[in-house]
RNA sequence: GUGAGAGUAGCUCAGUUGGCAGAGCACCGGAUUGUGGUUCCGGUGGUCGCGGGUUCGACCCCCGUCUUUCACCCCA
């Protein structure tokens, strides 16, 4: 055979068991919480027609998408998020669905952007969305779900920051920012956390030019609660409209609070999110000790997107997405995962002699039938080597059954963590491991 | 897409002015043929990312390229 040098594409990676085990554990927790809120799983293809994926107005996004012609000459792209495919899914399957529809989707997405810390070209997203409800209760459910997921992951130092697009639009009106300047102004606001206060003030003044407007803007940014926000808008010309959305946020927030889920949720005036499709509440989650990783769990309300794929219906949607690859990177850097498990099995049966191979498999299968994770050592190696293998893989126990033991229908069970060894009847193994592991 | 740093054994990295390719860990074997966290002894392992150039001679200097890290742009 000729040698082929193994290599990976930029931004793509292998997951070794150690990391894949962690990821799978996260997926399990996430889907359990999603399902506890009544979200059902769906799946959609990795490839879609290119014009479907860009339907909401390409721009920058087009550069970030993997795009090619398939063997039939079709213009296709790999999905770069799970939200646009959801909108397409809704349009295509609306007759089969019962609205309001709650779905979740855990799957990889692809973005041809340059790599960076915790950012890859292929990564997993875990999305949950409610389609077909414009109620503030749907917003609350999503926020409470986010809080539950983070709690279940045992993450303590997170902050869910919320804002509302409508309020921002009123702010822009108030500051008399012209339509064509809104994007660059919003981008500046979005980056507030990345620069020093004085630089930010300088840049925003440069933008607004007018000292009075600038002061007003800074007043807005100092709103750290919905009450102060209300106070800020109270005597302005846009208040009639803004107050509706402040009221809505208050209602949304108090549902969370009344149910003990509001402690890590706060109003944040400079949360913007991407400009493409959000129409109402927006939110981001940051880890206070890992701010450089950016938002790890975010989303918002988008009431127009799904309607693009439907002739005669509009679907109000609200949802959130966890960037699980980035979250794991951040947690890993912080030593969140104490002992790295490199193998899922808990028990290794030592291979003492070919004569007993059948017996080993038999013992293993009985344990396996009881949902225990068991391996039999396959090669006829020295015991020393088998133990070395065992401690490297991190099993909790090994079972030694040689001539002496099997003659008496017993085995030795050795705790690999405690360096202790006990004799035990074969029939007692299931009970012992069920109690111990 | 832009800018800067890095790429030498499986891993982490040394490598003098441009003059024979190194260490630790890991791996394999032995001390120890039924017992893994320690010890001791021995051994395997490199096209110095790849391609070109300069030079008597290149891991070292130059150009290109790929990968990677960090930052920018962007982040649905």
From TrEMBL:
L-histidine binds at residues 81-83, 111, 125, 129, 273, 277-278. Residues 1-331 form the Aminoacyl-transfer RNA synthetases class-II family profile domain. It is an enzyme of class 6 (ligase). Keywords: Aminoacyl-tRNA synthetase, ATP-binding, Cytoplasm, Ligase, Nucleotide-binding, Protein biosynthesis. It catalyses: tRNA(His) + L-histidine + ATP = L-histidyl-tRNA(His) + AMP + diphosphate + H(+). GO terms for cellular component: cytoplasm. It is found in: Cytoplasm. Its EC number is 6.1.1.21. GO terms for molecular function: ATP binding; histidine-tRNA ligase activity. InterPro entries: aa-tRNA-synth_II, aa-tRNA-synth_II/BPL/LPL, Anticodon-bd, Anticodon-bd_dom_sf, His-tRNA-ligase, HisRS-like_core, HisRS/HisZ, HisRS_anticodon. GO terms for biological process: histidyl-tRNA aminoacylation. Homodimer. Belongs to the class-II aminoacyl-tRNA synthetase family. NCBIfam families: hisS. This is Histidine--tRNA ligase. It comes from Muiribacterium halophilum.
